[in-house]
Specification:
This protein is an alpha+beta fold. Helix content is about 30%, strand content about 20%. The chain has a domain at about 15-80: 3-Layer(aba) Sandwich (Glutaredoxin). The chain has a 4-stranded mixed sheet with strand order 2-1-3-4, covered by helices on one side.
């Protein structure tokens, strides 16, 4: 009887998408909904960061909200272009 060999588990890194937003920001809420919908279609991790009241983050991001980064690189401000997002995530170096 032959033994079947198992392949070792392979951990494929997924792109990290970070959404910077603030309380009461309707554009941020819209971007968050888009990203959640896209996450069910594409393989990426989503982290939402509320900058409200955090002086350093407020200074860096407030005028650009929402800000979307892919693997630490700024990808979108103000709105998410879904076609461009799909392209950027598929070209992420973590894939």
């Amino acid at each position: 009887m032959s033994q079947k060999r198992r392949s070792p588990a392979v951990c494929i890194p997924r792109p990290l998408v970070r959404l910077y937003g603030a309380q009461g920001c309707s554009l941020c809420a819209r971007a968050g909904s888009q990203l959640e919908r896209l996450q069910s279609e594409l393989a990426f991790d989503l982290e939402e960061v509320d900058i409200t009241g955090v002086d350093e983050l407020e200074a860096r991001y407030r005028e650009w909200l929402p800000v979307v980064e892919i693997d630490g690189e700024r990808a979108f401000v103000y709105f998410v272009d879904e076609a461009a997002f799909r392209r950027k995530v598929s070209q992420s170096p973590t894939l």
